[in-house]
Amino acid sequence: MDKVSIVKIGGNVIEDEVALGKFLDLFASLDGLKILVHGGGKMATQLASKLGIESKMVGGRRITDAETLQVITMVYAGLTNKNIVAQLQARRCNALGLSGADGDTIQAHKRPVESIDYGFAGDVDGINSTLVTKFLETGLTPVFCAMTHDGNGQLLNTNADTIAAELAIGLSNVFETILYYCFEKKGVLKNVEDDNSLVEHLNSATYRQLLADGVIADGMLPKLENCFRVLNKNVGKVCIGHPSMLASENELFTTITL
Ligand SMILES: Nc1ncnc2c1ncn2[C@@H]1O[C@H](COP(=O)(O)OP(=O)(O)O)[C@@H](O)[C@H]1O
Ligand SMILES: CC(=O)N[C@@H](CCC(=O)OP(=O)(O)O)C(=O)O
């Protein structure tokens, strides 16, 4: 079975030009088949604020009304995706920018309203793994933004960590999949202010304990939910850490196991 690395890069790295450049150097040099998934939540919040639109997050997820959907489409599928693709081309990595609507690569449905109405937020139904596999086999590197669609013309905002997880699950029938969540910190920390408090190995039991202690918050909540979900669904390896973990196994980062 061929291997495919699915790398998610977070918004704090993307919005820092130097950090993004260093990350893309590492990503472009990564051996083997690979897919990039990017967020951009922070930039969307900044643009929304300039336009006088307030951003509301619940449990690390954005409440996406119609105006917010317009903003995130411009930021995620437009500026951020195209900039990353162009920068990968400059590094001789033949990137193909995609939202889930492109090639019907990711189908989703609007999240049903329960206690909270998330608006135009999408829950993923499935991945077009045949088409994504064809892209990979042609030598293309898919670059996904955090957007899906419902097949009836509605674009939906979908957490980028979830998109990376769904790609890892969907492709695990065809490839040995490895999922890397890259962000600005060394990994899961016991104290979010202290990079020396890294949790190198996290399993279900230690995760439950950290949750109970209130150590896991904000965007780390959906990230870790996704880690355990993919490990239950045949994905071989999941790591969370600084982009430098792509360069060397000697780097310290968090490895997640069941
Ligand atoms: N225990 C924790 N360890 C590391 N980061 C944490 C932790 N709890 C909360 N966080 C927060 O989660 C953020 C990462 O989630 P998010 O902002 O969604 O990441 P991304 O950069 O991938 O978009 C970190 O910037 C940090 O502020
Ligand atoms: C539904 C939902 O919350 N979507 C996310 C998608 C972007 C994202 O995931 O960006 P980061 O990886 O930079 O956080 C949002 O709009 O913030």
UniProtKB/TrEMBL annotation:
<dbReference type="Pfam" id="PF00696">
    <property type="entry name" value="AA_kinase"/>
</dbReference>
<feature type="binding site">
    <location>
        <begin position="40"/>
        <end position="41"/>
    </location>
    <ligand>
        <name>substrate</name>
    </ligand>
</feature>
<dbReference type="InterPro" id="IPR036393">
    <property type="entry name" value="AceGlu_kinase-like_sf"/>
</dbReference>
<dbReference type="GO" id="GO:0042450">
    <property type="term" value="P:L-arginine biosynthetic process via ornithine"/>
</dbReference>
<keyword id="KW-0028">Amino-acid biosynthesis</keyword>
<dbReference type="GO" id="GO:0005737">
    <property type="term" value="C:cytoplasm"/>
</dbReference>
<keyword id="KW-0067">ATP-binding</keyword>
<feature type="binding site">
    <location>
        <position position="62"/>
    </location>
    <ligand>
        <name>substrate</name>
    </ligand>
</feature>
<feature type="domain" description="Aspartate/glutamate/uridylate kinase">
    <location>
        <begin position="4"/>
        <end position="241"/>
    </location>
</feature>
<comment type="function">
    <text>Catalyzes the ATP-dependent phosphorylation of N-acetyl-L-glutamate.</text>
</comment>
<feature type="site" description="Transition state stabilizer">
    <location>
        <position position="223"/>
    </location>
</feature>
<comment type="similarity">
    <text>Belongs to the acetylglutamate kinase family. ArgB subfamily.</text>
</comment>
<dbReference type="InterPro" id="IPR001048">
    <property type="entry name" value="Asp/Glu/Uridylate_kinase"/>
</dbReference>
<dbReference type="GO" id="GO:0005524">
    <property type="term" value="F:ATP binding"/>
</dbReference>
<dbReference type="GO" id="GO:0003991">
    <property type="term" value="F:acetylglutamate kinase activity"/>
</dbReference>
<keyword id="KW-0418">Kinase</keyword>
<feature type="site" description="Transition state stabilizer">
    <location>
        <position position="8"/>
    </location>
</feature>
<dbReference type="InterPro" id="IPR037528">
    <property type="entry name" value="ArgB"/>
</dbReference>
<keyword id="KW-0055">Arginine biosynthesis</keyword>
<feature type="binding site">
    <location>
        <position position="157"/>
    </location>
    <ligand>
        <name>substrate</name>
    </ligand>
</feature>
<comment type="pathway">
    <text>Amino-acid biosynthesis; L-arginine biosynthesis; N(2)-acetyl-L-ornithine from L-glutamate: step 2/4.</text>
</comment>
<keyword id="KW-0808">Transferase</keyword>
<keyword id="KW-0547">Nucleotide-binding</keyword>
<dbReference type="InterPro" id="IPR004662">
    <property type="entry name" value="AcgluKinase_fam"/>
</dbReference>
<protein>
    <recommendedName>
        <fullName>Acetylglutamate kinase</fullName>
        <ecNumber>2.7.2.8</ecNumber>
    </recommendedName>
</protein>
<keyword id="KW-0963">Cytoplasm</keyword>
